[in-house]
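Worked example 2:
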Amino acid sequence: MVSNNMKTFDDVLQATGGFDWYQWRTYFFVCIAIFLECLLTFTQVFTGGTGEFWCERSKFQTGECLDSNKTSTECKRLGQLASCMSYNFTFDEDEKQLQEYVKTMPCEEGWVFDHSVYRNTFTEEWELVCDKSAVTNVLQSVYLSGFLVGCTLLAFMSDGFGRYPTLVVCGAMTCLSTLASAASPHPIVFGALRFCVAAFSHGLSLTSFVISTEMATPSMRVYVGAFLWIPFAIGYVVLSALGKYLNSWRLFILLTAAPFIPMILAIVYVDESPRWLLSKERYEDADKIIQKMARTNRKPLPSHYLTNLEESRDVAAKEGNMLDVLRNPVLRLYLLNLLYNWFVQSFVYYGLSLSTSSLGVDVFIAFCISGAVEIPSCIFGAFTMAKFGRKISTGGLMIFGGLACFATIFAPLGPVRVTFAMLGKFAITASFSNIYVHTAEIFPTPMRVFSVGTCSVAARVGGIIAPLILVLEKFWASLPLILFASSSILAGLLVFFLPETKDKLMPDTIEDSLNLKTIPSSKEANAPRAYGSMFDTLNR
């Protein structure tokens, strides 16, 4: 007998099977979107990589230098004073003697590139070296700027017009932009298209993350949110293989668009978020999807369940918007706290990643390992959130990561120092996946994507600043680690001022968000549950 006393969408989720087959197929689509963002984000590591290069000098290739009684080593040295300059020389045709001059000149005939690491890149094709070397970094900055658009405008679209339309638009535009970028004839065109790829792919991943958490029961949100980053880590491994064996950067980009094939097939099984529809009082549309959910999960629904939801909605507070969040002193403090936390998460994560000593292997193996270590980190973060709650898990991991950074300063060079550095990165990676879940559980449904997107903007700023902080080690070797450690510990302490959301209903209104600190988790824990663990579905 199914209870008819359902007042919230979380009650409906419990009645329709919890996290069952309907949710699993939506989750499959979301995992593809997250996996895709990794491929698109780090593509430039291999398509824009630069190996060794030197000036092209036709005289050395025709054998004239060797005919002048010079050895091959001497000829190579004379033609390769540096990667960007060469000797200005002439030949005495009578004596076949090479006349060397003190003056040097730029590489007028182009460059010769070493292919022992990177086989073919756009850096080589467009000769973005020497005085044009900054173009590659600018292209990466342009890509990061696209993230900011995805965090704001597309997040606003998701909250205002719906999750599903945003997924369709972002998915289609990401695919088209990716395919077009593979055919770019010029760096400016490539940069513009990569900007579009970043904006739409990040809008796709943010909306996918939110719709997956909105479809999950309170006990499942921690696993759903944290395990999403496992496909992201798997993307590292796939990129390493593509980078090592592909001979064309254009083909590389085309293959990163391959996940769109299963995504197109999976989109037919994805629906609008019923939670978002209910927040917009579109009850008939929400009812159709909830009925579909119940049929797919083979669970009955009481005939008048929607009436109770409407009555509960009528007595609820006004749903509000982001301006109401900023006007409310409590929610404003929550937002400022989370903005700083997201900034620090990215700041420390990229700072530690970029300052870690070389592993002594080639770039492809190192890149693969750097992603693989994040898989156990995400799993660890999820289970600590489920066991100890969001605050203890996230705050504790950040404090531990900061202490590990401090220990790295005093550790001797070698395995001990590397161990402390990797412990710090492990902790920050776990807390980074946790903060996504915690943020989504604090802000109400009508502004959830925009809130996560706004915090993501702060994270992008932290990622941009991190490499600049590493420059300070030229003045004081320990200064970057001191900044990483102190900011991480402070952020970890601030987490404890946020509300605990473990086993609590996801807020649909501002009033729900304000009540998070006053509603005990036992209220939700004592309610009857239709779903126990993540893997119960597979045993049915």
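The two ends are 19 Å apart (CA to CA). The longest helix spans residues 134-161.
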